[in-house]
Design brief:
Blueprint (H helix, E strand, L loop, with lengths): L1 H9 L18 E4 L6 H7 L5 E4 L2 E4 L2 E4 L2 E7 L6 E4 L7 E12 L2 E3 L5 E7 L2 E3 L2 E3 L6 E12 L2 E3 L6 E12 L2 E3 L6 E4 L2 E6 L2 E3 L6 E4 L2 E6 L2 E3 L4 E6 L2 E6 L2 E3 L3 E6 L2 E6 L2 E3 L6 E4 L2 E6 L2 E3 L6 E3 L4 E4 L7
Parallel strand pairs: 1-2, 2-5, 3-6, 4-7, 5-7, 6-8, 7-9, 7-10, 8-11, 9-12, 10-12, 11-13, 12-14, 13-15, 14-16, 14-17, 15-18, 16-19, 17-20, 18-21, 19-22, 20-23, 21-24, 22-25, 23-26, 24-27, 25-28, 26-29, 27-30, 28-31, 29-32
């Protein structure tokens, strides 16, 4: 009897087996080229919450991020050392129907659009250089909760940054220069925050806002652009605070718009007006100066314009 009971106690049927199985969806860190030779193959393998770390080097490829969620792609040693070359055609990086995609620390060059995003909600682009592309540097449409931060957009054949039908975007510390059209072209969008950005030496406007509702521009500078420094067209409820426009055709231009606030802005040394307002209503200007422009300091044909404190030195 004793032996029988010992046999039962030691039987595998009497001892529960504890198998430790990793939880599905645990985040991985994938290295390129260590784990996969190309960035695209790493993206194809990646699952939600994974991080792809790209070693320094030049990668000649086109990257499609299609129907992905919560994926971070990082250049390990930053944009100067990690280059994605589009080989002269197509988009370098295309993000479509994806959510919570983060790109950080790449130079993106030599294609049509540098980065093309459509239906890409919660897309974040940080610490990138987007240069020498045949169309827009960054082109984003039909997207929400977009963040673009600490990027340089340089020498693209169309606009530096082109946003359309974007809702809720943060654009911060972005420099857009030497583009063949506008530095920033923002159209038919709402709830935009643009802060501490620079637009210079572009062949059209520095900042062009068209059909924008509910936006703020804070601490932005536009200079040496062939047309307007900052243009607001057919827009409403726009706050422009602490911005400068100089050595442009017009420093600031507001047309066919209403409920526009210009607070603490300066428009000077422009070839035409420091600030030109036309076909607009309810324009408020406070603590602003428009001096040493070749034409008018401030020209207005607005229905209602309100000016307070520190009137322009030259009218």
């Amino acid at each position: 009897m004793v032996i029988l009971w010992l046999g039962l106690l030691l039987s595998p049927l009497a001892i529960p087996l504890l198998n430790v199985i990793p939880a599905a969806g645990d985040p991985d860190v994938i290295y390129v080229p260590d784990d996969y030779s190309t960035i695209q193959s790493a993206i194809n393998y990646a699952e939600e919450n994974d991080t792809i770390v790209v070693r320094a080097g030049t990668y000649k490829e086109h990257i499609d991020i299609l129907s992905k969620k919560r994926l971070t792609i990082v250049g390990e040693e930053g944009a100067e050392a990690t280059i994605i070359d589009g080989i002269g055609w197509y988009e370098v990086i295309r993000i479509f129907n994806s959510e919570e995609i983060t790109l950080e620390g790449f130079t993106i060059t030599n294609a049509s659009d540098g980065i093309y995003v459509r239906d890409g909600n919660s897309t974040t682009i940080e610490d990138c250089i987007i240069r020498d592309n045949g169309d827009d540097g960054i082109h984003i449409g039909w997207s929400e909760e977009v963040v673009i931060r600490r990027c340089d957009i340089v020498n693209n054949t169309d606009d530096g940054l082109y946003l359309w039908s974007v809702f809720d975007a943060l654009i911060e510390d972005v420099n857009s220069s030497d583009n063949y059209k506008n530095g920033f072209y923002l159209r038919d969008s709402r709830d935009l925050s643009i802060s501490y950005c620079q637009a210079y030496n572009n062949n059209d406007d520095g900042f062009h806002l068209w059909g924008i509702s509910n936006a703020s521009m804070v601490g932005c500078v536009a200079y040496l652009n062939d047309d307007d420094g900052i243009q607001v067209f057919s827009s409403n409820n726009i706050l422009i605070s602490g911005c400068e426009g100089y050595h442009n055709l017009y420093g600031f231009s507001v047309s066919d718009s209403y409920d526009i606030w210009l607070l603490g802005v300066e428009g000077y040394n422009n070839s035409q007006d420091g600030l030109s307002i036309g076909g607009s209503d309810r324009i408020c200007i406070s603590n602003s100066q428009f001096a040493e422009n070749d034409d008018d300091g401030l020209y207005s044909s607005a229905s209602r314009i309100y000016i307070s404190l520190d009137l322009p030195r030259k009218l």
